[in-house]
Write a structure and sequence with these properties.
The chain is an all-alpha fold. The chain has one domain (about 5-185). It is built from six helices and no strands. The chain has helices at about 5-30, 35-60, 70-90, 95-120, 125-145, 160-185. The radius of gyration is 17 Å and the shape is elongated. Keywords: Membrane, Transmembrane, Transmembrane helix. This is DUF308 domain-containing protein. InterPro entries: DUF308_memb.
Amino acid sequence: MSSNSLSQSSWLRSYYFVRALFSVAWIAAAILLRGQPGAIAFLLVIYPAWDALANLVDARVNGGLKANSSQALNVVVSTITALAVIAAVSDSTYAVLAVFGIWAIFSGLLQLYTAVRRWRHYGAQWVMILSGAQSALAGGFMISRSLGTAAPTILDITPYVAFGAFYFLLSAIWLFVAAYRKADA
């Protein structure tokens, strides 16, 4: 493995840890602030906005947006989603959940593609592949819930965020262990 690959792998581990920590903080805030509509609206907008920023930074570190078309598209999709959530928040919780569901499908498929592409260079991407696939499936579930009769709340989105946190943390740990084993070999 070249020194550039090692630094990129180190970046990826750190990136995954930061993504997991952000998600855990978001979940804690969602639970603590669930009765405060303004705070909830902010959390609902900030999550896809964070995803856009995280994909932008990661793509730039890994060769730029042109070299990472799936992440470039994810930046666009997540930014549009943040704007759509702003509009949906003033409409209904059903609309917000539908927007999150559509976003989860698109961002999940784009994450899956990014992970498959990265597998050749860094390995240990099976967790991100699984995460992307589950995100797409969760999106379908969120859309079906948005068509139901029970009024959705932010707690309908927190399991999605929790699984994301778990997958990012597991990926970071997996890459750390893989690097440790290579160093010992």
